[in-house]
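ok trying this again, last paste got cut off
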Amino acid sequence: MNNASRTRQRQRKKGLSISTIVLIVMLAVIAVGLVAIFAIYQHAKHSDTFMKNTTFNGADISGMTPTEVANQIIQNSQPVTINVTEKDQTVLTGDLADYGYSLDKDSMTASLEKARTAQTASIGAYMQNTTGGDNISADTVYSFDQSKFDSFVQSSNFSVARVKSVEGAVTLDSSSNTYVVTQPVQGNEIDDTKLQEAVRKAIDSASENGSLTGTVNISIPDDCYTSKTVNTDTADLQKEADEKNKELKLQAYKDMVITYQFGSQNETLTYDTFKDWLSIADDGSCTVDKDKAAAYVSNLANKYNTRHIEKTFKTTGGLTIDFPLGKVEYGYTVDEESETAELIKDLEAGQSVSREPIYYQTNDYGNPYYYKRNGTDDLAGTYVEVDLTKQHLWYYKDGSLLLESDLVSGDLSKNQGTMTGIFPVAYKESPSTLVGANYSTKVQYWMPFYEGEGLHDAWWRTSFGGEIYKTNGSNGCLNLPSNVAQSIFENIDAGVPIVIYYEPGTEPAESTYATDSTTMADNASAAAG
């Protein structure tokens, strides 16, 4: 053994090496550190606050108790609006409290306490949270009041009223007496139990997935509705209403009668006759076939017209006088165009009516064509009969002889014979001046009837009748004694017919009639004397 080896051996025997000492120191420090860490851990484990660098939803809650954090969550919570919608329209709206929901502080505090305890569940967890910090979360827990929820979530609380389903129908409208279609109504009644189940499920689902914030819209599911689905197509109902209105209109026409009055004689037009003239539209309005109506009026006119037709007259003396077409200026003529229009109007109105037909009433001077009638008898007991052969006159009124008298008619020797025929009295005038080609004569009573010829008083004559007219007659008028003219004037009206004739076999030649305009009156108010 050399000296160096012996020296090192002696040094080892004297004490510990430096490395050993360093190691011992380090172990001592670690031990002390572990003891300190353990002590701190034990302190943190038994603390009621969150560790340093702890956050909740990004907010620092270091040193806060779970209760303080729960209070802060409630304080900072945003309002939530829940809308129940129907066809995109809100029908019920409220906040969470209206729906029976409120934040449950106790449950949230318990959840937070669980998170705080987890921070110190082990030294490892503690060390991890100490070095890396901790971001915790906790469920937002709501308490629920079922009674309050059920009371609020009711269809009776909706802003849109609930109605029953009503099918469309055809009904009779009493005000218009027509059939109308009542429109269908789609009901919207709701089963509140199903509604509450759907709304509760939607709110809880939003709470669970974190979307129960701001405004939450909940659409009413279809299975909540109890009203049956109605048919909104009313086309068939409208057809039914139209058919019923047609039947109604036709029924009114079946009872309708148009009565034409011809004095005391009537002519009736009933449904059996005019039914083929009618066309009823879908809305119940009526159209009348104009041609068919015109044909009826034409037949009516042919039956009851009394002017410009051949006529037979029975004289006071029992003779029969035939008047040809051109001799009948008095009488009734139906204005067929106007009457057809009026008949169509009556039919379209659908109401029974009783009236006279529309006649041509006056000539161009405004003088009447007729006075009265009874059926086809347009004299009807009131007329002036003039027998030129006998130079005599009878005035019948209402079937009774009012007066009779001799007269003087137109001078045959001067070809101024009085015109024969049936003519209406144009008017009457008192006094009047008769103006002719070579004369002007004042009379007291003037009653013209044809082309300036008329009845009037002949105060200048002392005798009447006989054969005076053949050589010393008038200028065409019928000259009367003054008292007779006065009596006729006072009892006659415009339109009364004058029937003038010669007895058969006594008629003068046509050339003897006063047809020369130079011998006639120059205006409607004058006549040959």
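PB: full thing came through this time. The longest strand covers residues 89-95.
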